[in-house]
Amino acid sequence: MGFNEISFRVRYGETDQMGVVYYGNYAQYLEMGRVEWLRSLGISYKSMEENGIILPVISLQVKYLKSAVYDDVITVATFLKKTPSVKIEFDYIIYNEAREILVEANTVLAFMDRKTKRPVKCPDYILEKIAK
């Protein structure tokens, strides 16, 4: 299935008083991974929303293994777990420059109609891009 990586440097404002990345920031890192995964297929969140589809997170699981600290360059590897239906599921590995695994995570998102807020199946144009 699809796979993508994005790397970036941890900013000071993302850390707590102990100098490590605040645990809540990892959810944003996962979102960055998803957005770039979609972009690598030629799909943007903005275009999906303009086409009436929203993708709320309905499940988030994070296993913290090691801390990232200020100025670390970290990489979010994003993996599509299976072909999407009404839901789309991703696995993630976040690691540092030494390739030490910091976080293992999983998210499940639901395709929803923007107006009715009701679940819908994954749009065909997304399925076609995944199949390539």
Keywords:
132 residues, alpha+beta, Thiol Ester Dehydrase, Chain A, two-stranded antiparallel ribbon, 23% helix
Q: For the largest beta sheet, what order do the strands appear in spatially?
A: 1-4-5-6-3
Name of the CATH architecture: Roll
Query: What is the SS-derived class?
Result: alpha+beta
What proportion strand?
Answer: 25-35%
In CATH, what is the homologous superfamily?
Hotdog Thioesterase
Quaternary status = single chain
Write down the overall mean pLDDT: 95
Summarize the structure.
With 132 residues, this protein is α+β, with helices and mostly antiparallel strands. 23% of the residues lie in helices and 35% in strands.
Explain what you see.
- The model has no long low-confidence stretch (mean pLDDT 95).
- The protein has a single domain, classed as Roll (Thiol Ester Dehydrase, Chain A), CATH 3.10.129.
- Helices cover 23% and strands 35% of the residues.
- The longest helix is centred in the first third of the chain and has 16 residues.
- The radius of gyration is 16 Å and the shape is elongated.
- The strands form 2 sheets. It has a 5-stranded antiparallel beta sheet with strand order 1-4-5-6-3, covered by helices on one side. Strands 2-7 form a two-stranded antiparallel ribbon.
Helix/strand layout:
Elements: E1 3-9, H1 25-40, H2 45-50, E2 53-54, E3 57-64, E4 73-80, E5 87-95, E6 101-110, E7 112-113, H3 124-131
Antiparallel strand pairs: 1-4, 2-7, 3-6, 4-5, 5-6
